[in-house]
Structure formats: C-alpha cells, structure tokens
Write a structure and sequence with these properties.
The chain is about 60% helix and about 0% strand. The mean pLDDT is about 85. It starts with 5 loop residues before the first helix and ends with a helix. The relative contact order is 0.07. With about 60 residues, the chain is mostly helical. The chain has one domain. It has three helices and no strands. The radius of gyration is 24 Å and the shape is elongated.
Length: about 60
C-alpha cells in the first residue's frame, strides 16, 4: 500500500480507509506526556494580555477619533 495522508483517509472510501488504519503503528509504551499544570498566575497573565489586546486598539481608535 502507498503512503496516504491522514486527510485523504478521512475522505477515502471506507474500504481504503480501513486498510490504511491497519498500517498505523501502535504508540510506544510510556510515550504519553501529561499536560502542563497551569498556575493561577499563568491564567491571569493570559487573560490580562487578551483584555489588553482587545481594549488597547479600541481605546487608540477612540482617541484618534
């Protein structure tokens, strides 16, 4: 079987997609990487940047008017 991209597997006929899935290797044992633990400070910084990125241009446009 030729190499087929994941996008093509999604739109392929069911028979071809099933055959392609048979050739997908199994994940390595203990290869799972847990998600990062987010601190309250990191979350607060993220929200502060989002608010500043939204209100900053809005205030500049209002001031230029």
């Amino acid at each position: 079987m030729d190499v087929i991209s994941p996008e093509l597997v999604l739109v392929s006929p069911p028979e071809l997609a099933a055959e392609a899935r048979l050739h997908v290797p199994e994940p390595l044992p203990l290869s799972y990487v847990p998600q990062l633990k987010l601190t309250r400070r990191a979350i607060a910084t993220f929200y502060a940047c989002c608010i500043a990125g939204t209100l900053g241009p809005l205030l500049l446009a209002y001031a230029a008017r």
